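Please decode residue identities from the backbone states below.
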């Protein structure tokens, strides 16, 4: 019989192997349910319901829930979109407060949902963190996945899989909300960014930042090409 759970902390890294020294490949955020596939000593191998990403997390950080509740949470809870750096949630059972990042899931929100442009502005300056998916630290595909989370559209976790979605957009026809993919070639996609217009793109590289780009790719302040453009996709109009 399948078992399901949620984490008891704000966010936690998903490791490739069952130890803290292993590579971090993604993370689970508060309110994101998952299936517990296997357990080995102090570690659990889980599959996130949101994007079906699999990996290991410490069992001590898991609260088990029924399958029906996990599916209900996955389909109905909404991402936090407040504009303080984090959201404070009171856990009455433990009589303590927990600080949640933008992107964590909660049953209801005290504030009106904000536009994607305002979410982008809020995330500018957030540090790059390999495997990160929130305002506590984020990588390039975690950034684009998080933005589309607020549109109620689920993107895969990795850039190479996000690139399989949507329709190809010829250069010059791109617009706000399109995704640009970068890398050595189409078999080696290593980066993704969120297009604002035909000159600026927002992406996570060192930190979430706004850069200039052209038909060749992203350029830095010294006009040096830092990421080679492969193609542009339109997943959904924003």
């Amino acid at each position: 019989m399948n078992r399901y759970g949620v984490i008891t902390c704000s966010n936690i890294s998903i490791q490739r192997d069952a130890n803290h020294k292993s590579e971090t490949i993604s993370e689970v955020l508060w309110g994101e349910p998952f299936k517990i596939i296997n357990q080995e000593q102090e570690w659990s191998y889980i599959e996130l319901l949101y994007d079906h990403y699999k990996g290991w997390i410490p069992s001590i950080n898991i609260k088990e829930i029924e399958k029906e509740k996990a599916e209900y949470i996955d389909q109905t809870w909404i991402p936090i979109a407040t504009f303080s750096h984090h959201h404070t949630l009171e856990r009455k059972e433990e009589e303590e407060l927990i600080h949640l990042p933008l992107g964590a899931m909660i049953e209801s929100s005290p504030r009106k949902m904000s536009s994607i442009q305002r979410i982008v502005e809020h995330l500018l300056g957030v540090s790059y963190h390999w495997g990160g998916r929130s305002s506590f630290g984020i990588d390039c595909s975690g950034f684009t996945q998080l933005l589309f989370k607020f549109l109620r559209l689920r993107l895969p976790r990795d850039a190479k899989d996000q690139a399989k979605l949507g329709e190809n957009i010829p250069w010059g026809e791109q617009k706000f909300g399109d995704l640009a993919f970068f890398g050595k070639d189409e078999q080696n996609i290593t980066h993704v960014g969120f297009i604002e217009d035909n000159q600026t793109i927002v992406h996570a590289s060192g930190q979430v930042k706004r850069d200039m780009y052209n038909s060749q790719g992203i350029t830095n302040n010294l006009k040096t090409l830092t990421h080679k453009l492969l193609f542009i996709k339109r997943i959904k109009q924003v």
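Observation: The longest strand covers residues 225-234.
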